[in-house]
Write a structure and sequence with these properties.
Elements lengths: L23 H36 L32 H27 L9 H17 L5 E4 L4 E6 L3 H4 L10 H9 L3 H13 L4 E6 L6 E7 L5
Antiparallel strand pairs: 1-2, 2-4, 3-4
């Protein structure tokens, strides 16, 4: 398999041929964020249910020992359901962090797999800038069907990648007059967590340990900042 798109004519009659609409990835990336929120909340609900069941079982005992229930609603000798207890529904910030971890980790694994597959026939990169250029040109073209529009660096391990028309944002729009710009940008940023993971995973496969952050000020543009980290001996 190469980075180039297959040329026609396509042999649709070939029973072993597999075709996939190029829009599938765009739609998938749009759905990843709400899907991650649903999964995080389902996991949290199951955690609360298990805690409630354990608390009820302990409360139905003889009222003595480690299973006794105090007047404050907490389980003596265990973790209660009072403020900050294990049975309390997660705060909004905790929910956001859990979604970020899930999406970024998923992207990390995808980035690793892409590089392992599509760079195996290439000579190993010896310069960090060459790795970043590979990311901006070849890998970005493979995933998003275009190259990065602008690359800047301070030559001290910081790289800023600008995509003026980030494909996952091309099918998205903000509600006119419905949100403040800051709130809209905060919501849009969630859709950059998966690509951040893809970048970090790809770099890790090429021997570069880095942090990746992303921002968007106006759709459909996106900016990714890469900071390479020194490897501890």
């Amino acid at each position: 398999m190469s980075f180039d798109s297959p040329l026609p004519p396509y042999n649709a009659s070939d029973p072993s041929a597999t075709f996939l609409n190029s829009s599938c990835l765009d739609f998938l990336m749009i759905e990843l964020v709400p899907m991650a929120y649903r999964i995080v909340n389902e996991v949290d609900s199951e955690r609360i249910s298990r805690f409630d069941a354990a608390t009820s079982a302990n409360g139905n005992g003889n009222g003595t020992g480690n299973g006794s229930v105090s007047t404050k609603g907490t389980v003596a000798g265990g973790v209660g359901r009072g403020e900050g207890g294990a049975g309390k529904k997660m705060e909004e910030e905790e929910e956001r962090d859990a979604v970020f971890f899930r999406l970024e980790s998923l992207g990390y694994r995808v980035g690793q797999g892409l590089v392992e597959r599509f760079s195996r026939d290439r000579a190993r990169f010896t310069d960090t800038l060459d790795v970043i250029k590979f990311l901006c040109k070849d890998l970005w073209m493979l995933v998003f069907r275009k190259q990065i529009d602008n690359l800047k660096t301070n030559h001290r391990g910081v790289y800023v990648l600008t995509d003026n028309s980030f494909r996952p944002f091309a099918r998205m729009s903000t509600e006119a007059g419905g949100h403040y710009p800051s709130e809209s940008n905060k919501a849009n940023k969630q859709f950059l967590w998966f690509p951040c993971g893809v970048i970090r995973g790809a770099l890790a496969s090429m021997g570069i340990n880095a942090t990746v952050q992303a921002e968007t000020s106006e759709l459909p543009g996106a900016t990714f900042q890469i900071k390479s980290l020194a490897v501890k001996a």
